[in-house]
Design brief:
CATH topology: Rossmann fold
CATH class: Alpha Beta
Mean pLDDT: 96
Helix content: 40-55%
Low-confidence stretches: none
CATH architecture: 3-Layer(aba) Sandwich
Shape: globular
Strand content: 5-15%
Largest sheet: 5 strands, parallel
Order of helices and strands: EHEHHHEHEHEEEHHEH
Bound molecules: BIS(adenosine)-5'-pentaphosphate, magnesium ion
Number of domains: 1
Strand order of the largest sheet: 2-3-1-4-8
CATH superfamily: P-loop containing nucleotide triphosphate hydrolases
Number of helices: 9
């Protein structure tokens, strides 16, 4: 099962993708998490990505596409995967379509998690992230058991550098300009499904499992 999560920054793609990955036993591949772990480790890729991410801009396609295609061709992806944060531009989507069709494959589901911009900024200021394992929390809606500490791996939780309100506004603008057109792209391919991302996390997950089937 090959799944793409679409939706604005903060819509809940990561939250839902993690649960999908657990339920269907497929890898959760988040390009944002891959970039953040490279930044944390100080790699060349990380240093390059950081310049763009801190401004709320997209990392260039020539960096992102190759990285993602390498990842989905690894052995653990044989049964499928859930992509979170990729594709984000039409050229990324076209590269993915081509790489898959060269192997006689295609995306099965593109799930758009729909949340209006006005709900997003509040969510982001309350988000806390684990840069070690990628787990995500919210101070009100999904708090960790112990304040400031990741339930999964025990590392310290942080406010992401790009979650400051002014950077969130920029990310939303970039989303509308460059990523929203993918909704039509996948609608035309007949694989688009939308869920109301303003509902609570459990209800959103319920809607997604209805789409994907038990
Ligand atoms: P990325 O890490 O992908 O960030 P994003 O798309 O901006 O999305 P977020 O991770 O901010 O939000 P989310 O939808 O995952 O929401 P979450 O589940 O955390 O990318 C970061 C940057 O990397 C980009 O800006 C770009 O620079 C670069 N990048 C990444 N991929 C790229 C690509 N393909 N091409 C180029 N550049 C790329 O939820 C948000 C908060 O809300 C959490 O606190 C959560 O607990 C809470 N929450 C979730 N669901 C609910 C709910 N139903 N009710 C209440 N609260 C909820
Ligand atoms: Mg995310």
């Amino acid at each position: 099962m090959k799944i793409i999560m679409l939706g604005a920054p903060g819509a809940g793609k990561g939250t839902q993708a993690k649960r999908i990955a657990e339920k269907y036993q497929i890898p959760h591949i988040s390009t944002g998490d891959i970039f953040r772990s490279n930044i944390k480790e100080g790699t060349e890729l990380g240093m390059k990505a950081k310049q763009f991410m801190d401004q709320g801009l997209l990392v260039p396609d020539e960096v992102t596409i190759g990285m993602l295609l390498d990842r989905i061709h690894q052995d653990d992806c044989e049964k499928g995967y859930v992509l979170d944060g990729f594709p984000r531009t039409i050229p990324q989507a076209e590269s993915l379509t081509k790489a898959l069709s060269d192997r006689g494959e295609a995306i099965d589901y593109a799930i758009d998690v729909d949340v209006l911009d006005e709900n997003i900024v509040n969510r982001m200021s309350g988000r806390r992230a684990c840069l070690t394992c990628g787990a995500t929390y919210h101070v009100t809606f999904a708090p960790p058991a112990k304040e400031g500490i990741c339930d999964v791996c025990g590392a310290e939780l942080v406010l992401r550098d790009d979650d400051k309100p002014e950077t969130v506004q920029k990310r939303l603008a970039v989303y509308h300009e460059q990523t929203q057109p993918l909704i039509d792209y996948y609608k035309e391919k007949g694989v688009l499904h939308s869920v109301d991302g303003t509902k609570d996390m459990e209800e959103v997950f319920q809607s997604i499992t209805e789409i994907l089937g038990a």
